[in-house]
């Protein structure tokens, strides 16, 4: 399988020594508004202790289109943002699996210095203020590279008839099994670059079929890849209510799928609303973080001065042991009090 780049940004990642996260977004040519919203999310890096000096990058991927006007608009968008990747195959639902291979391939070939890759559709709304600190923490705590970090795990008997009659997928590329394997929903998942590389290599050695979710699941099954149950991190039907809920603060991660059921014709409006909610919350949290860091700095200065005073007094009182002992007790009480704060 030899996919050729029509548009590419080969230096996007290589100009950095290391990236924490690459977002690689499967988009459609006409979804200009969605891409604008996602760009706004991706460029806003959190300022918490787990996100300092973090580098995050993104690309949007497409196949070709026969519409010359649309192709021209995409080219202008590419020239402006330098985040568009196009491969030399026709954009269609039937070729979604090829877009997945394209995502894995580009990640491995041009962004191998990323720790994590999130392959996602452009209808997925990402709360980066939760995701980036979470991934950084995971990187520090775990040495495992052979698993998905976030995955909406799905198990279903599969309705092949639906894909053939409604989605017009040819019978010869449809999944032939009776039941779909367990898989990560293709709307969005996060994995270590090591795992993305394994999936890409396996994809080159296995027949491609649709739906792409089931195909991804079959590859994961063959590679004995663990699929974690992260379903509670995804909200499919009431994203605005979920993101506005007080319970949201305690959630570790959160992704909103914005095109389900009655939402389908209002994706950009929903994403704009979510973006506003996120901006208001992050501004509030940022103020709290800066306040905590400022207080921490003040406490650090107190500790330094206590140490200096202690050293001086040690020299002065070293001949008078009883005074030295009494001073030591007082000093350590003050020290523990500072640690408490």
UniProtKB/TrEMBL annotation:
<dbReference type="GO" id="GO:0016758">
    <property type="term" value="F:hexosyltransferase activity"/>
</dbReference>
<dbReference type="GO" id="GO:0000139">
    <property type="term" value="C:Golgi membrane"/>
</dbReference>
<dbReference type="GO" id="GO:0006493">
    <property type="term" value="P:protein O-linked glycosylation"/>
</dbReference>
<dbReference type="InterPro" id="IPR002659">
    <property type="entry name" value="Glyco_trans_31"/>
</dbReference>
<keyword id="KW-0808">Transferase</keyword>
<keyword id="KW-0472">Membrane</keyword>
<comment type="similarity">
    <text>Belongs to the glycosyltransferase 31 family.</text>
</comment>
<keyword id="KW-0328">Glycosyltransferase</keyword>
<keyword id="KW-1133">Transmembrane helix</keyword>
<feature type="transmembrane region" description="Helical">
    <location>
        <begin position="300"/>
        <end position="318"/>
    </location>
</feature>
<keyword id="KW-0735">Signal-anchor</keyword>
<keyword id="KW-0812">Transmembrane</keyword>
<dbReference type="Pfam" id="PF01762">
    <property type="entry name" value="Galactosyl_T"/>
</dbReference>
<keyword id="KW-0333">Golgi apparatus</keyword>
<protein>
    <recommendedName>
        <fullName>Hexosyltransferase</fullName>
        <ecNumber>2.4.1.-</ecNumber>
    </recommendedName>
</protein>
